[in-house]
Write a structure and sequence with these properties.
Structural class: alpha/beta
Largest sheet: 6 strands, mixed
Order of helices and strands: EHHEHEEEEEHEEEEEEHEHHEHHHH
Number of helices: 11
Number of strands: 15
């Protein structure tokens, strides 16, 4: 028996965290998730899987745009042509407000209703499979959903649970909270979980875990993204991760003492050979004061953006400065003092006191009160302090 476990496609959701994107990159980003789904379907057809399970958040909202809906239906129709059933549960992002307003899915698609429901099928090798799951009909579910799942079906060779939710205490979490023991007590052969965008195994045998998102959509969703190809092996169902995302977010450290006139060309040469496209946060380790200054003032990033080409298989969207020794002691004052001072100054409370409380624009507030922004501010200030120390030697402003 063989099937695909995937989830969190988030079709229709744009990439986040990119302040500048050339036109050629915008086109690539817009088609990335669709490309990932297309690759998954290609693999399903080639492997002749018995069925596909999609564990929630196919769309990023309850009102996905026409392009996202059309693309998904087109891929599901390809699976229908190959006689591959698909089982779909909707999650907290694409929860069903009105079942009549859903796209018209092909006949090979089975949608889990609001109440936990079990469907039976027979594989090509005449094995019987029971698949139990549910769909969200509101953004938040705090009730005990696991209790609604039946015990493993004795008449089935395999029983699979499809669950979109998070580990937590029932009644206190918003996303169908559950505990691992409750899932174990059902004695299923496999739990296909959705909601968490990072691959995570809660239990290896029988498998209980998340396949993660199919395409990372911001810099927090790093590394390869894809799905699980699940195959029977004796009395076990064993998942194997298969990457399909055409774009990967990565953080790369590079050490160089090239000067400002040659550093861009040098760095670009290091990333010339890539099989898949990468969005790169570059940690540049250098002692060159002009390069450090250009990083802090966003000048070096602007040079990389200007140098980017449509034929590139990478795009550097963020640069962080690091010195060779990581931390350079400031004169006459212990480094721990500077680090502690910077950490104390750049907090949400201090930024509000320094003037942010006068800002009413929600987007601006969200940006500056974001934990990542606070960290970036602290790093930038520490780099400026290092540059100030180096100024006496290198005469840099």
């Amino acid at each position: 028996m063989k099937f695909i476990h995937a989830g969190d496609l988030h079709l229709g959701n744009p990439f986040g965290g990119l302040s500048v994107t050339p036109d050629w990159l915008t086109d690539k980003l817009q088609s990335a998730t669709e490309t990932a789904v297309h690759r998954l379907v290609d693999d399903a057809i080639t492997a002749a899987v018995d069925f596909v399970v999609l564990a929630g958040d196919l769309f990023d909202s309850t009102t996905p745009d026409a392009r996202a809906q059309l693309d998904l239906v087109k891929e599901l129709e390809r699976l229908a042509t190959a006689n591959i059933p698909v089982y779909i549960g909707f999650g907290n992002h694409d929860y069903v407000v009105d079942w009549q307003r859903l796209p018209t899915f092909p006949k090979n698609v089975t949608l889990f209703p609001e109440a936990v429901t079990t469907y039976d099928l027979q594989t090509q090798n005449h094995e019987t499979v029971a698949i139990s799951g549910f769909s969200y009909t509101q953004r938040h579910i705090t009730t005990d959903q696991v209790a609604q799942f039946p015990m493993k079906a004795n008449q089935a060779d395999w029983h699979i649970g499809v669950y979109h939710g998070a580990v937590g205490e029932v009644g206190s979490g918003n996303y169908a909270p559950f505990n691992l023991q409750a899932l174990q007590d059902k004695h299923y052969d496999y739990w296909a979980l959705g909601h968490i965008h990072v691959r995570e195994t809660l239990q290896a045998k029988p498998f209980i875990g998340y396949s993660g998102s199919i395409q990372g959509l911001d810099k927090t969703e790093t590394d390869a993204k894809g799905y699980y190809m699940v195959e029977s092996d004796g009395d076990e169902l064993v998942p194997t991760f298969t990457p399909v995302a055409p774009i990967t977010w990565v953080t790369t450290s590079l050490r160089t003492n090239r000067d400002l006139s040659t550093v861009v060309q040098y760095v670009r040469e290091q990333f010339a050979a890539k099989d898949e496209f990468e969005l790169i946060t570059l940690e540049l380790i250098t002692e060159e004061p002009n390069v450090l200054s250009a990083i802090v003032n966003q000048q070096l990033l602007a040079q990389f953006v200007a140098a980017a080409q449509p034929t590139d298989m990478f795009f550097i969207y963020d640069i962080q400065a690091q010195t060779q020794d990581q931390q350079m002691p400031l004169p006459a004052v212990d480094e721990s003092y500077w680090s502690a001072t910077v950490a104390d100054v750049f907090t949400r409370e201090q930024l509000q006191k320094l003037g942010l409380k006068q800002v009413t624009d929600v987007a601006v507030l969200d940006h500056f009160l974001n934990e990542q922004t606070l960290q970036e501010l602290q790093t930038a200030v520490q780099t400026q302090l290092h540059l100030a120390q180096m100024g006496d030697e290198y005469h840099v402003d």
